[in-house]
Automatic annotation (TrEMBL):
Keyword Oxidoreductase: yes
High-level lineage: Bacteria, Bacillati, Cyanobacteriota, Cyanophyceae, Leptolyngbyales
Name of the protein in its database record: Short-chain dehydrogenase
Record keywords: Oxidoreductase
InterPro entries: NAD(P)-bd_dom_sf (IPR036291), Sc_DH/Rdtase_CS (IPR020904), SDR_fam (IPR002347)
Pfam families, per database record: adh_short
GO MF term list: oxidoreductase activity
Keyword Manganese assigned: no
Amino acid sequence: MASPVVLITGCSSGIGSALCWAFQSKGYRVVATARQVEQLQKLQAAGMTVMTLDVNDPQAVKSVVSSVLATEGKIDVLVNNAGFGQFGPLMDISQDKLQRQFQTNVFAPLALVQQVAPSMKEQGSGLIINMGSISGLVTTPFAGAYCASKAALHSLSEAMRMELAPFNIQVVTIQPGAIASSFGSSAESSLDSVMHSTSWYADLETDIRARAQLSQSAATPSAQFAAALVTQVTQPNPPSVIRLGKKSLWLPWLKRILPDRLMAYLLSRKFGLTELS
C-alpha cells in the first residue's frame, strides 16, 4: 500500500516545520509549503517535497493542489497551518489590516479545503486539520483581530466537520496553547505599523507588546507539540477538537467557570487597562 500523503502549509519554521518531521516519522509522504521555499531546504534534504505557496493567492493554491495530485496521486491529509497574528488595540487597526488577518487565517484555509476536498471525496476518505488557537476561545485585550479570526476558523471547522462527514472526510480542529515558535516575534512586529504616539493606549505600549509575546512564555517545544498531535490525528477516529500545549486546558476552563465581568477585569488588569480608568 502506498504511503499516505500530507500537504502542510506554513512550514518555514515553528509548528509547521515540526509537523513535517512528525508526519514523516510516521511514514507519511510530506509536501511542505511556504511563501519562501528556500526556508524549506532542510526538509527537502530529508526527502520531503517542498513547494512555494502563498495561501492568499487563489491561483497558487489551485496550482499547488493540482501539482500534488498529479505527482503524488492523492492527498490524504491537509494541514491548514499557515497563519499570523495581527495584534494591537482595535481602535488602531485599519480595515486593511483586519481584512488581511481574516484573509490569511479564515478565508485561505477554506479555499484550500475547497480545492483538496473533491479528491478526498473521490477516493472515499480524507483528513483535514485546521490550526485554531485557544485565543479563539479566550479573547484578550490587544489581540481582538487575531482572536476573532481564530474563533471564526473554529466555527468554519465545526460546519465542515458536519458537512463533509457523509463523504468520509474527517475534520479536526487544533486549539494550541503556548507553543515555542517565531509567532511572538512576528506578532510583535505587527504592532510596528499600528502603535503611534496619538493612540489612546500609547502609555500601555509595553503591556501591548507583552501580549504579543505571551504565547512564548513557558511555551511547549514545537517538536513535542507536533509529536503529540500527529500521534492523535493518525488514530482511526481522531478527536474532533484537540487542545495541546501549555495553557491550552486551564485557560478555557477558567473562562468557563468565572463570571464574565470577573474574567474581563482580570484580563484588563493584566494588560494595564485598569490603569487608564
